[in-house]
Design goal:
The protein has 178 residues and is α/β, with parallel strands linked by helices. It has a single domain, classed as Toll/interleukin-1 receptor homology (TIR) domain (Rossmann fold, 3-Layer(aba) Sandwich). It has 8 helices and 5 strands, in the order βαβααβαβαααβα. α1 packs across α8, α3 packs parallel to α4 and α4 crosses α7. The longest helix has 17 residues. This is ADP-ribosyl cyclase/cyclic ADP-ribose hydrolase. It catalyses: NAD(+) + H2O = ADP-D-ribose + nicotinamide + H(+). InterPro entries: TIR_dom, Toll_tir_struct_dom_sf.
Length: 178
């Protein structure tokens, strides 16, 4: 049921957005659970390994997905690509009603919402690299604030991750049915 190839006509139930620091553990486990439950999920790990320039294709996949799950980790904001994905996800949520579920992986939602701590550091780094693109920086900040204001799930050191993953799968299944 899962596919990681970029087929322009394919519609996905779920688009998974994450940074490398969660891809081999939490995100891959969530991906597997979604697929085992018949939820067609796009997880770009296989495509990204090939080193292709696929930004436009990935943005189209986000548009064509019914739901996005954004796994916000401590390293998420350090990636300009993740932030570009997030802007597109928020745009789809606003314009087409795409369901967005944030998962705060070892990061407090207020850190993301207010861009403090590691998120503040990441934004400062981006400011140095994108000095002449204040619109991009503002869109990244706004997307982070918007997503962190949504009801989501939190993963902490004491979280029972398998139970949380199952809870997310059930919630996605219910949202997709309605």
């Amino acid at each position: 049921m899962s596919s990681s190839s970029l087929e322009p006509q394919t519609k996905y139930d779920v688009y998974l957005s994450s940074r490398e620091d969660t891809r081999k553990n939490f995100t891959s486990h969530l991906h597997a659970a979604l697929c085992q439950n018949g939820i067609q999920t796009f997880f770009d790990v296989d495509v990204l390994k090939k080193g292709m320039d696929i930004s436009l294709e990935l943005l189209k996949v986000i548009e064509d997905s019914r739901c996005s799950i954004v796994i916000l980790s401590n390293e998420y904001a350090s990636s300009s690509w993740c932030l570009n994905e997030l802007v597109k996800i928020v745009e789809c949520m606003t314009t087409s009603g795409q369901i967005v579920i944030p998962i705060f992986y070892q990061v407090d939602p207020s850190v993301v919402r207010n861009q403090t701590g590691r998120y503040e550091e990441a934004i400062r780094q981006h400011e140095q690299h994108h000095r002449n693109d204040s619109e991009k920086l503002q869109s990244w900040r706004a997307a982070l604030t918007r997503v962190a204001s949504l009801a989501g799930r939190e993963v902490r050191d004491d979280t029972d991750e398998p139970s949380l993953i199952q809870d997310v799968v059930v919630a996605i299944s219910e949202k997709l049915r309605s």
